[in-house]
Amino acid sequence: MELRQLKYFIAVAEREHVSDAAFELHVAQSAVSRQISNLENELGVQLFERVGRNVHLTPIGKIYLSHVKSALKGLDYAKKQVDEYLDPERGSIKIGFPTSLASNLLPTVLSAFKKSYPNIRFQLRQGSYNFLIESVENRDIDLAFLGPVPDHLPDIIGKVLFMENFYALIPNSHSKATKEAVSVRDLENEDFVLFPEGYVLHQLVIDACIRAGFTPNIHSQGEDLDAIKGLVAAGMGITLLPESAFNDLNTAYTAKVAISDPPLRRTVGIIIPKHRNLAPSEQVFYQFIQDYFEVGD
Question: Is the entire prediction scored with pTM above 0.85?
Fold first, then answer.
């Protein structure tokens, strides 16, 4: 089988239409059909079945697709390793990050890194906690910033860079907005504004409230930090957020209040794959980040 056949196969599988795949690949439809037919003959199985004007993967076709994608990622990574072996300071790194680290940590460290390694390029991908972990595991991104840092995953190495406190974000019209600190227990009767279930910041707040002896009343939800902050500013409730999320706080509508008895904290760090060596440029960045925060301490 040829690399071209595998690329044609993926294109048809993703678009479920031979002519659409041919258009995307800039080749004739007959060429795509011929290569798919050759691939099926070589394998001795039917990879697609026709449904109307579309084509769908057969059960064995779906299994084959997952392996082909993994194999092509491996080939791309091998080529990257060779290129960066020749010049480790001229590569490209795919970095993932959550929304809570987007406004402060990420631009700060990338700006510092760029001063020392101006020729290394970045591809940035924002996503949820579980999405970032899965993306590193699947080679869709090279490494990711994350908080809290996972420490018991079989395919991930987590490096803690620092700890950060959570604070309560409270509408200015609220009586607790002028306090220096509140305990989580003090918030038992409050309406909460949280990320939806499935987001790690949702679960961290739920767990903190349960440890304090109550289940929070979730009044409203938002899927990003701006939405959460906007709902609190509108008086819909209070929320708990890590310190890195307060970089652009609008003090005209909300107040940042410390949490005490006890403080609520999370680890923040970087994750890399356990069973794959980092490419040279990735290793340079990974070491730079660790040195950067050790110096900062």
Answer: no
269 near 159, Cβ under 8 Å? yes
156 lies in a domain? no
pLDDT tens column, 216-256:
999 999 888 889 999 999 999 999 999 988 877 777 899 99
Domain containing 288 — which CATH number? 3.40.190.10
The residue type found at 171 is P
Instruction: Indicate if 261 and 280 belong to the same structural domain.
Output: no
Range of the domain at 284: 87-149+274-296
Distances (CA, A) of 96 to 43, 101, 125, 271: 37, 10, 5, 10
